[in-house]
Design a protein that fits this description.
By secondary structure, the protein is of the alpha+beta class. The protein is 65% helix and 8% strand. It folds into two domains: 318 residues, Rhopdopsin 7-helix transmembrane proteins, CATH 1.20.1070; 158 residues, Reverse transcriptase/Diguanylate cyclase domain (Alpha-Beta Plaits), CATH 3.30.70. Helix 17 links the parallel strand 4 and strand 5.
């Protein structure tokens, strides 16, 4: 069915039930005061059926859709019970409990964000809390019934106001969640439910406040017709939402912060609001139920805190692992240039604090460009890995640091090492590479070798340390390679 056909079907559904209520009485030749309630039951039953069908639709999240199903089921049960037991003029107090309870699963959907756990134990706690809230609701209104179990007429106005507050509160809560939605499924569900709740708040308020139009039959008829509209609109919205649309994550940071900040307190606010109806007449049972509701809420908060703490620790471990990987050279497995920059700043601070010298060795693989050109880059990578392993093995102290500086260049930091000590390390590295016999036909002595520039400075002058080591490396390469040169030292020592 194309888009025009779908919209035509939606329009027909929206007007079908009101049309039945308008033409029904003239056709049968008498007033049908109970017809409006049967139409409400039919409309809400259709909405419940549509929501149940959407539980298997991938476009909707099962947890939030399940909350909508449970809420609609409470409303349908309340209307069915009202028709079956108390007629259309008065309602048993239990029907009002069901009508109020329809909002509790919806409230749960509004507070259960994706940032919270969805484990079986959490679902058990949430289920227990919803049951306790329903019991609190019943206890809160039990004293409003008369000897026959019907709602006292003098208390009707307060019950209607409570319904208005609940409906507006749910609408505003879902509106904020719609604005704060960051995923397509979440946005789709909260948007259509917000429309439903907005229509329901308007039509239910118009229907319940019949004292505003006591002498107007037209308004009274309209008040009976309108309540079917939210439920038939919900059927249309659920059907239309089965087809995902393009979605861009919201940029409303204030809405996300507001939703995240108020969500944990909404259930507590519900417990507090329902506890206002607990009186001395409820006895010990009422106080026990209230205490259990508070206890279950505390358990829920503790579960959330444990989950957040566990998530935070896992995230910290993951970030630490990412940080470690980001500081390692992918080819050689030793620290990279970024890691060297961090280590250099730390070693210089330590040297300044202790008043000790710091040395740097700039190392270059001799004739490596020719090696790559003649042997190929795969062989060159193998040679670099071997050189990195040998150079790192030549270091003896835990504080000594080696990194790949770029290409075929490596750099070594030797904290608390004077110039003569740094030369000992350079000589050891020259010898380690030379004696490893890494074959290279065009290299010195037919093998891979390295040239090393050595520089030493006190911490106050460490800013030019790397540059001086690089200058010494240039001298070592220009005077024959396979050697080290210490800056400021006239001696040129040859390894091997």
């Amino acid at each position: 069915m194309g888009k025009p056909g779908r919209f035509l079907g939606y329009g027909a559904l929206l007007v079908a039930l009101p049309l039945v209520q308008v033409v029904g009485p003239p056709i049968v030749g008498r007033e049908l005061p109970e017809l409006a309630y049967y139409m409400m039951l039919l409309a809400s039953g259709m909405a419940l059926f549509a929501a149940v069908a959407c539980l298997r639709v991938p476009a909707y999240e099962r947890r939030t859709m399940g909350s909508l199903v449970l809420g609609l089921a409470c409303w349908v049960a309340g209307m069915a019970y009202a028709i079956a037991r108390s007629g259309t003029e008065q309602n048993l107090i239990s029907t009002y409990v069901l009508f109020v309870s329809y909002g509790l699963p919806l409230l749960y959907a509004a507070v259960a964000t994706r940032d919270e756990p969805t484990t079986p134990s959490r679902r058990l706690v949430d289920g227990a809390l919803l049951v306790l809230l329903v019991i609190l609701c019943y206890l809160g209104v039990r004293d409003l019934r008369d000897a026959d179990g019907f709602l006292k007429s003098e208390d009707m106005v307060w019950v209607v106001i409570a319904f208005d507050i609940e409906n507006v509160f749910l609408f505003l809560t879902f509106l904020i969640r719609t604005l704060a939605s960051s995923e397509e499924k979440e946005r789709r569900f909260f948007r259509l439910t917000t429309i439903f709740l907005g229509l329901y708040a308007l039509t239910a308020g118009f229907h319940n406040h019949d004292e505003l139009y006591p002498a107007s039959p037209a308004f009274a008829r309209l008040a009976d017709i309108l309540p079917t509209l939210p439920f038939t609109a919900l059927v249309c919205l659920l059907h239309a939402g089965r087809r995902p649309r393009a979605f861009e994550p919201t940029q409303r940071l204030w809405a996300r912060q507001l939703a995240a900040g108020f969500a944990p307190g909404l259930l507590l606010a519900a417990i507090f609001a329902l506890s206002l109806g607990i009186k001395e007449s409820q006895g010990t049972f009422g106080r026990v139920v209230l205490a259990l509701a508070m206890l279950v809420y505390v358990v829920r908060v503790v579960q959330t805190q444990f989950w957040f703490a566990s998530t935070r620790d896992r995230l910290a471990d993951a970030l630490a692992a990412v940080e470690r990987v980001s500081l390692l050279d992918e080819l050689t497995g030793i620290p990279n240039r970024r890691a060297f920059d961090q280590a250099f700043a730390e070693r210089v601070r330590e040297a300044a604090r202790d008043g000790k010298p710091i040395s740097a060795l700039m190392i270059d693989v001799d004739l490596f460009k020719t090696f790559n050109d003649t042997r190929g880059h795969p062989e060159g990578d193998i040679a670099l890995k071997a050189v990195a392993r040998l150079l790192a093995g030549a270091l003896r102290r835990p504080a000594d640091f080696i990194a790949r500086y770029g290409g075929e260049e490596f750099i070594v930091l030797l904290p608390n090492a004077p110039l003569d000590g740094a030369q000992v390390v350079a000589r050891r590295m020259n010898r380690a590479i030379h004696d490893a016999l890494l074959e290279y036909d065009h290299g010195i002595d037919g093998r891979v070798t390295v040239s090393i520039g050595v520089a030493t400075a006190m911490a106050a002058d460490a800013g030019d340390l790397v540059r001086h080591a690089d200058q010494a490396l240039y001298v070592a390469k220009s005077t024959g390679r396979n050697r080290y040169v210490a800056i400021g030292d006239a001696e040129v020592a040859v390894a091997g």
